[in-house]
Fold this sequence. Notes:
Layout: H1 10-29, H2 36-52, H3 57-66, H4 68-78, H5 83-95, H6 97-101, H7 106-125, H8 138-143
Amino acid sequence: MLYQLQKLSSEEQTSVKRSPIWVTLLVACADYDIQESEIERAKEIIHIKSYALQNDLKELYKELDSNIDQEIDQALVAIPADGNQRIQYLEEKISELNPIFKKLDSTFNKQLYKNLKSVALAVAQSDGGFFGVGRLSDEEERYISLPMLHQP
């Protein structure tokens, strides 16, 4: 377990650990149509971050990468089928991080916030445009800044 998360409840730890999955699904669901390319891109990003990061989040991404398919499957089962309810559910899950941020080290918070935004952008860019780069839908554009999160 990450030492930064030790002072959190188990539910709060789970929220932090699953936050990249919730962000992935929010952006993928923004246009009410989850594309396989969006999920695959998120898996790639999480895998890359599990090796490439040189900060405290590396362990978070390593843990997530080790069972990414199971985590995504569990998250997909948990989200509502209705598009609007799905978006609302995912926004609520991500906003659970706001009070948790107050309990964590400010450096870790900033790293997590920045990384979640980078995951959101990568997922949004994975579908559409020229070779998957360039064109973001209006819905994706709205969510890549993660407006439900308060910048630490």
